[in-house]
Amino acid sequence: MTYAWRIQEYLIHRYILHSSNPAFKVARDIHKNHHSNPSYYHYCIDSPSIIFSWFGVAGLIFFQVPVYGPLLLSFYSLNGLTYMYSHYLAHSKVKLDCKKSKLEKYLFKVKQNHIRHHKVDESKGFGFGSVETDKFFGTAFVNQMNKK
């Protein structure tokens, strides 16, 4: 389920939020605001109407799967919450230490990659939760981000 989330996250970010297609104008404009104000973490958390709509669509899809639908929806939702929290941390002033726990090291790497997407090259780093997704699709950053 995590792999499905990461691929979905990558495809939406790259092909909808960075699209020039007029059909995606509203989503693209919201995302542009997010890019122009990367330290304004409120752009990182979707509104309740978006979250509940997304959850409703996911529920309609997953409940088509006999027996396992609720379980799949639970895992999908957990991935969504993890994404929202990680994205918030990436844009907040929370200091992450890459020398501490595995989780903090992972979040530090995610934060570096995402900020690099904002400030260095918007045509790379679409896979927010996983650098490996960018490697798979050929949009990973080649060099490590400079440390301050």
Write a structural description.
There is one protein chain. The protein has 148 residues and is an all-alpha fold. The chain has one domain (2-137). It contains 6 helices and no strands. It has helices at residues 2-17, 25-36, 48-62, 69-91, 102-119, 131-137. Helix 3 packs antiparallel against helix 4. The longest helix has 23 residues, at 69-91. It is globular. The protein starts with a helix and ends in an 11-residue tail after the last helix. The model is unreliable at 144-148 (pLDDT under 50).
What labels would you give this structure?
single chain; 148 residues; mainly alpha; 6 helices; 61% helix; 0% strand; globular; disordered C terminus
Largest sheet: none
Helix content: 55-70%
Helix-strand string:
HHHHHH
| Number of H- or I-type helical stretches | 6
State the assembly state of the protein chains: single chain
Using DSSP, what is the number of strands? Answer: 0
Strand content: under 5%
Which structural class fits the helix and strand makeup? mainly alpha
Q: What is the end-to-end distance? A: 35 Å
Report low-confidence residues grouped into runs of 5 or more.
Answer: 144-148
Shape: globular
The tally of structural domains comes to: 1
Radius of gyration: 16 Å
Q: Average the pLDDT over all residues and give the rounded result.
A: 81
GO molecular function: iron ion binding; oxidoreductase activity
Pfam family, one: FA_hydroxylase
Domain Fatty acid hydroxylase: 4-139
Keywords: Membrane, Transmembrane, Transmembrane helix
